[in-house]
Design brief:
The chain is mostly helical. The chain contains 14 helices and no strands.
Length: 311
């Protein structure tokens, strides 16, 4: 997470540093860019646009989404961890042993399967997506098509929810150059009022007016627009991850073996993050499959029989 934040900060530094460095090379005066009135017009106007365009519910989503920009990065290991958890769940849920899944999906925080993969367990939304899908299939006796339909609906709703704050930021970014022009026009009005005064004073007012346009364009293309682009990327990455879970779970409920269901998920993984088949098989073979209650009872009965014979 720290590395991702560092990358964002580095990008902002590069943008602002390049602009300031170029301005200084042209022997510009940085003090001229400090125009509180222009900042108030542009910043206050942008805030007003957000308040007008967003109901209270969307404001909360917007704030939460902006703070979530620190996370959401998926790696090859992230996908492998998810496939390993699903593989173990598939093994337990085969045939008549499907009821053994209930304890794991009802309380994943107490499950040894999820506990062995804390990175996935920490992803609350993904864990709920997996557990809710299994729980509905087991408790309601849904068909494979119905389970797949529910998961697709869930992914679509989550994608729609993530698009709402992005649309707000895009609207703000689109309005910032216009707000810069508003600030510039007001600066020109002030300049016209000062005509007939000292040339130095008129020049300062013209410079202040132009700063408004500059700040609006810079805020649009140097900050808000890239921010909305990053949030859009995070939303797409999230949808890709949930899609892998959906494909794998759907394949299992359609009758695929645990390995084939995991392979279906691997094939739906983005190419740059997709593990090889050999790598996935090696990782899956290392997974410990918890014994079901029937297996435990059989082992206990066998041990008890052995003790009786030895006695």
């Amino acid at each position: 997470m720290g590395g991702r934040l560092l990358l964002i900060y580095a990008g902002l530094v590069v943008v602002l540093g390049s602009v300031v460095a170029g301005y200084l090379l042209e022997r510009g005066n940085l003090l001229v860019l400090l125009q509180p009135a222009e900042l108030l017009i542009i910043g206050g106007g942008a805030l007003g646009i957000v308040l007008i365009s967003c109901p209270t519910r969307n404001l909360r989503i917007l704030v939460k989404t902006i703070f979530s920009i620190r996370g959401g990065s998926y790696t090859r290991e992230t996908y492998l961890e998810a496939l390993k958890v699903l593989y173990v769940l598939f093994h337990i849920g085969r045939g008549a042993e499907r009821s053994a899944l209930e304890a794991h999906v009802e309380t994943p925080q107490e499950s040894e399967i999820f506990g062995a993969h804390p990175s996935l367990l920490a992803d609350i939304e993904a864990t709920q997506f997996i557990c809710d899908s299994f729980r509905m299939a087991l408790s309601a006796g849904l068909t494979a098509e119905e389970v797949a339909r529910l998961m697709t609906l869930d992914i679509d709703v989550q994608r729609s929810g993530r698009l709402q704050p992005i649309r707000t930021l895009v609207n703000v970014a689109d309005s910032l150059p216009g707000l810069g022009i508003v600030a510039a026009v007001l600066g020109v009005v002030v300049t016209m009022q000062a005509l007939g005064g000292p040339a130095v004073e008129i020049g300062q007012k013209v410079a202040a007016a132009l700063v408004g346009t500059f700040l609006g364009i810079l805020a649009c293309y140097g900050a808000i627009s890239p921010l909305s682009g990053r949030l859009d990327y995070l939303g797409r990455a999230r949808a890709e991850f949930l899609q892998v879970l959906r494909v794998s779970i759907s394949a299992f409920f359609h009758g695929a073996s645990p390995l084939v269901a995991a392979e279906a998920g691997r094939r739906s993984t983005p190419l740059d993050l997709r593990p090889s088949l050999d790598e996935m098989e090696t990782q899956l073979r290392r997974e410990k499959i918890p014994l079901t209650r029937a297996q435990q009872e059989a082992i206990a009965a066998s041990e008890a029989a052995g003790e009786v014979v030895s006695t």
